[in-house]
Amino acid sequence: MFRSFVTSGWIKVCGIRDVATAEAAAAAGASAVGLNFFAKSSRSVTPADAARIVSALSATSTQAIGLFVNHSRDEIESITAQAGLTAIQLHGDETPAFVNELQQRHPDGAILKAFRIAESLQPVAEFLAECKRLNVRLAGCLLDARVDGSFGGTGAVAPWELIARDYDRANWPPLILAGGLIPENVAAAIKSVRPMGVDTASGVESSPGVKETKLLVRFVAEARRAFAQLSR
How far is CA 54 from CA 65, 197, 223, in A? Predict the structure, then answer.
């Protein structure tokens, strides 16, 4: 059966490219790592390398999630099979109908959908209304900052106040906050927005595509501390 794995306090480190960094994220306590298959990204990974990361994480509680940007259904299915993935994140311009096709073919898989936010959550509302009509069940919605010409990972901060005010937590999938999150601001973001989870990529890097273990560990620790304070 379909299940959502995003629960309160969920922390994802996206753009992992090698086993050592994936293991460091797991040791730090990350809930998930993101494996980016968008070829134009500095964080892209091959299916073979992804398979090695998935294998290395199999003995941990950290889940690997494949990130796709406007890939075809066949490409997604081929890559997920090669890498051994059971969860994916759609970060492009995919439609509810496209998500529905994937879900019908892979009912046991979990799907996150990313949205790039600027001045309104209306596009999110419209997308989710159509998902409801099609009986599409998303594992979570990731809200990132909109930067023209980019599909994410820019370091731009998402509009926290807008998201906190307008995200319909009662009727929409679990909220995952992304966009410019770093060790220094993730606690404030969690306190302000109260998401179910957070996601970072550039925020724990020493250079584009290169994760810095010390930053990664600090990010996870700060996020966990902030989530714990919310539950008090």
Answer: 9, 21, 24
